[in-house]
Amino acid sequence: MTEKPGVVVTGVSGRMGRMLVREILDSDRLRLAGALEREGHDWLGRDLGEAMGGAALGVVVQDDPLDAFARAQAVVDFTTPAATVGFADLAAQARAVHVIGTTGLSDADLHRIHVAARHAVVVRAGNMSLGVNLLTQVTRRVAAALDADWDIEIVEAHHNRKVDAPSGTALMLGEAAAAGRGVALEKVSDRGRDGLTGARERGQIGFHAIRGGDIVGEHEVIFAAAGERITLKHVASDRALFARGALRAALWGQDKAPGEYDMLDVLGLGD
């Protein structure tokens, strides 16, 4: 491909959407091909650059994903589960790489995405950062090395506008810990303790969510046993790292066969 791959940003008015636009404009390997917002949004029909408070970019914000995807090679999507599954169908029709950072997806949503991935590249991850994906690998290995006498607790913190809990990253870490132990997370997950809960059950993986201020993202995996404790932690201080990771995935997927991938594949860390 001689021309730089074009990227459509969904939910472009949001914090991540704006960050993605800035990163694409600074990139010498990608170009901004489109900007989407939901029906009725006050940015619709406006030049994106002017809507963001800057100079005109020549890209008009629209609410027609099929039209936008037809003119692009990648879609980067940090929106809502309902929007994402619709975008997955349309990105597959356009054979565009669909990079999904949306969290809170249900089993039914994941099935829709799985079907779409038969026709196009889908890169989906609860977190797009290199550090978190390394933490995932380490968590799996530590869990595999320790028996169920070591309690596993996952603590995550985010800004006060985050709508889902536990975070997608916390669940990704939980899946890694469960995989290390050779169990299914849904069978050992323990969330939302309150009141007289009784003693902690052996082998469970606990989750705790903190919401406050402008916290970008903090994740801690605690392995606790009698007399000792191991703590693995990642702190994100700049949201741009998630945008850069997502755009790296969009570029990586350009020459890949249709299918479902994650950031471990993108970063060359997969099994």
Give an overview of the whole structure.
With 271 residues, this protein is of the alpha/beta class. The protein folds into two domains: 147 residues, Rossmann fold (3-Layer(aba) Sandwich); 107 residues, 2-Layer Sandwich (Dihydrodipicolinate Reductase, domain 2), CATH 3.30.360. Helix content is 35%, strand content 23%. Strands 3-2-1-4-5-6-12 form a seven-stranded parallel sheet, with helices on both faces. Strands 8-9-7-10-11 form a five-stranded mixed sheet. Helix 4 packs parallel to helix 5 and helix 6 packs parallel to helix 7. The chain is elongated, with a radius of gyration of 20 Å. Catalyzes the conversion of 4-hydroxy-tetrahydrodipicolinate (HTPA) to tetrahydrodipicolinate. It is an enzyme of class 1 (oxidoreductase). This is 4-hydroxy-tetrahydrodipicolinate reductase.
Features of the shown structure:
Rossmann fold; 12 strands; single chain; Dihydrodipicolinate Reductase, domain 2; alpha/beta; 10 helices; five-stranded mixed beta sheet; 271 residues; seven-stranded parallel beta sheet
Span between N and C termini?
29 Å
Helical content stands at: 25-40%
Q: Compute the average pLDDT.
A: 95
Return the domain count.
Answer: 2
SS strand fraction: 15-25%
CATH architecture of the largest domain: 3-Layer(aba) Sandwich
Contiguous runs where pLDDT drops below 50 for at least 5 residues: none
Question: What name does CATH use for the topology of the largest domain?
Answer: Rossmann fold
Tell me the Rg in angstroms.
20 Å
Q: Which strand order do you get reading across the main beta sheet?
A: 3-2-1-4-5-6-12
Biggest beta sheet attributes? 7 strands, parallel
* Helical segment count: 10
Give the CATH class of the largest domain: Alpha Beta
Structural class: alpha/beta
Shape: elongated
